[in-house]
Amino acid sequence: MKASLSIKKSILALQHLIAMFGATVLVPILTGLDPSVALFSAGCGTLIFHYCTKKKVPVFLGSSFAFIPVIVQVASKYGDLRYAQGGMLVAGLVYVLFSFFIRGIGIEKIQKILPPQVIGPMIIVIGFNLLPTAFNMAKTSYIVAGLTLALAVAWPYLVKGFLKQISILVAVIFGYVLSVAFKLVDFTAINNAQYFAVPNFTLPLFDIEAIIIIVPIIFAVFMEHLGDITTNGAVVGQNFIEDPGLNRTLLGDGLATVFASLIGGPANTTYGENTGVLAITKNYDPSILRLAAVFAIILGFVGKLGGFLRTIPQAVMGGISIMLFSMIGFIGIRNIRDNHVKFNIKNIIVMGSILFIGFSGGLFKELFGFSIELPITANISLNGLSLAAIVGILLNAILNGVKRDA
């Protein structure tokens, strides 16, 4: 019985790992960091996060896309990625300090400014803003992406019991086999990979200008974190902002980023893909995410396995991502419905503003080429979810006050 349970947990953990793998290794590939270090630091960062949050929150941390532009900028300016590491390390420490500040003022004050008419639209923006990324991956082969998506959606209706929970894993395997048949798989990564290889760990270097370039990005990351943790809680049916507390989830993110920066990995953040997996499988056991973290750490050293996962075609992950990201968006809609938000003029203004500004930074930018931005420094601007959340919170406070039920 115990052996059977362990096998099931291992399969579910592998499913989570596959869901986050593509995005986590894409960040280091785009910035020049080592993908194996990114995997190792994501696994360790996830374990750090779970320790900070009393092992209550089913979250997997992966590479943060928000840091890509500033990492590239610093690397171009200094010709050395280690200065970007130093900037990310300081950003992680600021995150830690922010968590202590929130603990000091009290979680209840944070909750008062985040009613459902603010949180719901934020979740919708998180999910649907990611759809262009999924479609861009899918367009490499719409046939493979479409069939992979179709199986992932249909699978839970075709089987019973535990098999219903591994629809994503089954669909990825099916899509991979289909891709091999269509000759879409490049096996170079497997052939070139070593069976065992120590990741290219590096120590950070520090420069005040590099730090100034990178640290302001935490304003954007904080809003993303807030949305992800809220979405995760909405899926699970628990208020993680309250218990274990936003201060603890921020502390976990901050310490994970500090650790990653110390060894040469990208900054860590919560992942929407894994929230989507939770919503689909309806298995919310945090120990499964910790097991996935252990697998990620092992993969950092096992070159052949990492190489195999790198060969999963983008079309396959694109088909899966369409389902995962759509699920997140619909969770936001359900959050508004389940909390019985009144559709009066004040709430419509608040929700409409969040949706319009939020989509302008992602979905609208992809479709129509425009976005609404608020410059912070010469190099950093707030847009998308970050700006939408700030505007939404301020508008709600002005129109509705800070009452929980507006």
Outline the structure in words.
The chain is mostly helical and 406 residues long. The chain is 72% helix and 3% strand. It contains 20 helices and 4 strands. It has a two-stranded antiparallel ribbon. Strands 3-4 form a two-stranded antiparallel sheet. Helix 2 packs antiparallel against helix 15 (286-299), helix 6 crosses helix 12 and helix 6 packs antiparallel against helix 20 (384-400). The longest helix is centred in the first third of the chain and has 30 residues, at 2-31. The mean pLDDT is 84.
Distinctive features:
406 residues, mainly alpha, two-stranded antiparallel ribbon, 20 helices, 4 strands, Xan_ur_permease, transport
What class do helices, strands and sheet pairing give?
mainly alpha
Q: How large is the count of helical segments? A: 20
Strand line-up in the sheet with most strands: 1-2
Q: Tell me the total number of β-strands.
A: 4
Membrane topology: Multi-pass membrane protein
Pfam families: Xan_ur_permease (PF00860)
Keywords: Membrane, Transmembrane, Transmembrane helix, Transport
GO cellular component, one term: plasma membrane
